[in-house]
Amino acid sequence: MQDDQGRHNRLALYYSGAIAALAFLVIAAAPAEAAAKKNTPPSSAAAETPEVPGDDIFGFTSATDLGNLGDIGFAEEITGITGKRDGSYNALFSKSELGYTISESWWIGGSAFASRHRIHNVTDMTDVSGTEFFGLSFEIKHRLIKRSAGNPFAVTLALEPVWTRIDGATGLRSEAYSAEFKILTDAVIVPDKVFWAANLVYVPQRAQDVNDRSIWLKTSFSSISTALTFQLSPTLFVGAEARHLASYGKGTLDDRLGYAIYVGPTLLWKISEKVAFNATWQPQVSGRSIDNPDLRYDLDNFERAQFRAKFSVALN
After folding, report:
1. For domain 2-314, which architecture applies?
2. What is the pLDDT of residue 149?
3. For residues 212 and 22, what is the distance between their CA atoms, to the nearest angstrom?
4. Do 187 and 167 touch, CB atoms closer than 8 A?
5. Which candidate in 59, 116, 216, 301 could, as Cys together with 241 as Cys, close a disulfide (CB 3.0–4.6 Å)?
6. Phi, psi of 103 (to 5 degrees)
7. In which residue ranges of the chain is pLDDT below 50?
């Protein structure tokens, strides 16, 4: 029990440190950006400042780029989750997104979702097999801190309200309302060669109990991720990503039900100037659930592996 408590304490320290580091970047980079704008002529600043490519080069972790004014883009994203302690568990989620850059600092987008669940002989879960219309979302992003010659970090804030009609974990009918609050940051490590990004995401949710839809439950979810990507050629990027996911039994970040750590490779292939393909596959390498604290993974709140494939198309 002491070893387990020690692991929890170390994870809490890591978790708090990551949040503090991101907050520090937001606070510290703001005056650096202001000073760079004041001391550097606009024309030379643009020429001297290397940028992180705008495509999804980091896997699940998002970059800060919003595109150019007037850009319109479409993306088709397939996310998969698979594996529980027993039985057969597989689910796919399709996200069709249309986005528009309304200014240098603002981006908006709307998405429609579909889901496919195949669940059989999993303990404490109902067998499900079928495809459903899953839900809708609207997202807005704001570039809070722009990269400059004196500041290597860019920071973007995002908010995505989501309505769903199916429970993502069980595939059963359950209406839910949630909002994803995101802090995105990235930096150029070696110009045209190595890029880094990190995301902090908090998602409070109010949803119907799948066993009694007259009861509404408040839960929440958090994610801290970091990724490093290498540019092998103008059209090919490869890298690695690590994510710490946590599930909570309340709308605030207490009453933690479990956590899971996922690590895996990432790939981006620029098929053409307007079309890109991004993919990542990530197994759970560590985790704990309060229901099974002695087991290595949290397969009560999460899955054995998660993956994503995404096609992005510039429409203008």
Report:
1. Beta Barrel (2.40)
2. 84
3. 39
4. no
5. 59
6. -160, 180
7. 1-46
257, burial (CB in 10 Å: exposed 0-12, middle 13-18, buried 19+)? buried
pLDDT at 47: 53
12: which residues sit within 8 A by CB, 6+ positions away? none
Between the alpha carbon of residue 131 and those of residues 93, 113, 159, 166, 309, the distances in Å are 10, 11, 27, 10, 18
Phi-psi category of residue 17: left, alpha or beta, with phi > 0 → left and psi -120 to 50 → alpha: alpha
- Over the stretch 255-267, which tens digit does the pLDDT of each residue have? 999 999 999 999 9
Nearest to 262 by CA among 79, 75, 92: 79
pTM equals 0.84
Domain-wise residue ranges, the chain:
2-314
Give CA–CA dist 210/277, Å, rounded.
Answer: 35
pLDDT in tens, 236-295: 999 999 999 999 999 888 899 999 999 999 999 999 999 999 999 999 999 999 999 999
Token pair belonging to 275: 């079309």
Dihedral of the CA atoms 119, 203, 159, 135 (nearest 10)? Answer: 30
DSSP state of 151: B
Helices (H), the chain: 2-39, 42-48
Q: Which residue has the tokens 């009918």?
A: 173
